[in-house]
Amino acid sequence: MERLKQTILAEGKVLSNTVLKVDAFLNHQIDPALMEEIGKEFADRFAAAGITKILTLESSGIAPAVMAGLVLKVPVVFARKRKSLTLTDHLYSAQVHSFTKQETNEISISQTFITQDDTVLIIDDFLANGQAVFGLIDILKQAKATIAGIGIVIEKSFQDGGKSIRNAGYRVESLARIAHLSDGNVTFLEEEN
Ligand code: 5GP
Hints:
Elements: H1 2-11, E1 13-14, E2 20-21, H2 32-45, E3 53-57, H3 62-72, E4 76-79, E5 91-97, E6 104-110, E7 119-127, H4 131-142, E8 146-156, H5 161-167, E9 172-182, E10 185-188, H6 189-192
Parallel strand pairs: 3-4, 3-7, 7-8, 8-9
Antiparallel strand pairs: 1-2, 5-6, 9-10
The site of guanosine-5'-monophosphate has 20 residues, from strand 2, strand 7 and helix 4.
């Protein structure tokens, strides 16, 4: 997605050879117009998949997921990382090791909101080693829901997540795929080929 790539080049900050900071438009301040376009793109790519719900992870997956949900006209559920006083229902939970925070969180959703009748699109902001996505897949397996695929805003293709999830048989659609981060520069996958 060209506009996303241009925004990454203009506003992203390469913190190291493995971490890209996108606080200016996705992870802290949010660019609603860009999110709208991202939502439309996910909705287009999964238009024929019969999606009934979108599942994401708080907090940075919520903006792109809501925009996709708006276009597909389906509800968006976000898994919570912290136990909440109001999250009192029966839960589906999974362990997720965070790449950026280097800590393991239990993520949970209420069993009320996703059932075996749902066909679910998973959306997240970044794909690195795939821990977050595999945690969400784990939750959907517990719910016996159908997994239509995974929509990722920024995939770091030099890390293993994309390969592992595709090898496990899931459809992954990433709007920007980064081949490498080096010397402060971002190189997208297509530029290499
Ligand atoms: P994974 O679980 O695939 O290893 O990592 C994905 C999660 O870690 C995403 O939900 C995202 O929040 C965070 N993450 C991974 N890599 C980056 C990165 O380079 N920059 C930012 N801002 N977040 C990242």
